[in-house]
Amino acid sequence: MAFKDLREFVSVLDKAGDLLRVREEVDPRLEVTELLDRAVKEGGPALLFENVKGSAVPLLGNALGTHRRMLLALGLGSYDEIDHRISAFFDLKQPQGLLDKIRMLPQLAELASFLPRTVKSGPCKEVVLKKGQFSLLDLPVCTCWPGDGGPFITLPMVFTKDPASGKRNCGMYRMQVYDETSTGMHWQIHKQGARHARKALARGEKIPVAVALGADPATYFSATLPLPDEVDEMLLAGFLRKEAVEMVPCETVDLEVPAQSEIVLEGWVDPSELRREGPFGDHTGYYSLADDYPVFHVECMTRRKNPLYVHTIVGRPPMEDAFMGFAIERITLPLLKKQMPEVVDMHMPPEGAFHNLMILALDKQYPGHARKLMHAIWGLGQAMFTKVVVVVDADVNVHDLSEVAWRVLANIDPARDLELSKGPMDALEHASQYFAYGGKVGIDATTKWKSEGFDRDWPGVIVMDGAVRERMGAVWERLRKR
User: Fold this and answer.
1) pLDDT tens, position by position, 384-428
2) Residues 307 and 420 in one domain
3) 0.85 exceeded by the pTM?
4) How far apart (Å, rounded) are the C-alpha atoms in residues 288 and 282?
5) Which of 18, 216, 282, 417 is catalytic?
6) Residue 423, strand partner residues
7) Which of 18, 201, 347, 385 could bond 271 through an S-S bridge, CB–CB 3.0 to 4.6 Å?
8) Residue 276 lies in a domain
9) How many angstroms separate the CA atoms of 101 and 83, rounded?
10) Domain-located, residue 326
11) Active-site residue 282, yes or no?
């Protein structure tokens, strides 16, 4: 099912007993974080803070903080469903004849139904406030950790257009609130929003920006996905929801935002104007250091009459983003397999903050195949940030970290099986020698072949005879019941 908006999702969670209403007054400075941290670490419910100190706007947190809620948000029973859907769409090939074209029509028609649809107005326009009529300080924006540089908006959908082509991008970049009408815009150097800003700077122009806060969860989740530049995040949101996202024109900038949003901020960024932003307690579990970033000047706020503010916290894993990250992993796996069919499975554990560790199960087919796969990952989109790539054999369960550790530690000769490289690093990487550039390591933990210079026999893995295991399993169950 596609949720119409955020509040419909909240209603479903409430009816399912998966929402806790917090009616006590809670301070957005640190106290909200402490309760959300406890909830996510315990696998607890989403929290709806109805009495946030200093604000009349309720705050929703930990909305996607379990696998069950993440699947619910995407309308899935399991991630296998999205795997099959994505694989089917990307199996579309150039039709060879009339019969092929006819066969493709249903899939093409379905894909067209997911295209974002422009509407004249929507709930996000129920209240329109121009500069001097609103204050960002009235929103329940949280200071999450003691060392943070201030309060941060953590789940914004940031809309920009390429100044040259006009192509839309929707990204998710944290925003430190400076005052009533301005925030930081944490456009990391490799992100598409930053590329738009650099193009605007070269043209001597300001760049229009619209920020939507609070849409249906599949839509705001789509802003986090590492998509190719040519793919519209709102198209993918429609694909995930199985229903087109309604988009409404902004009041003061030539941009569109989801019509069902709770709050919309419209304004501009002058790429030449920088201001100190941070520190910020980040998803690595460390503070990202203060640095200079562009300033977003808000000229207009539109909102629902009684808006709902959605928030997440990041910090030492696991946090809510661990479940969002797992969903991203499952959604991108079939796309990875299209380019590298030898990949059986992959896992990016939350402890690796997504870009620090990728474990790949490989259907090994030739000498050096594991090393080829490492370099392919380092040359692929945002996967280029991966600091450690571990390649194991096809029969290893990459989601069982105990099994992975056992197989890796048993199978590697460090003098032979480490592949060292250098390249771009995530802007949040604090250990690299230089900002956004540093070293990487690949670990080949696959079975070594004689054609790879291994002259000894490779031992087999100890596995019990299947028939004996099944027979004695039944015996063991009887023994346990005595």
Assistant:
1) 999 999 999 999 999 999 999 999 999 999 999 999 999 999 888
2) no
3) yes
4) 6
5) 282
6) 438
7) 201
8) yes
9) 24
10) no
11) yes
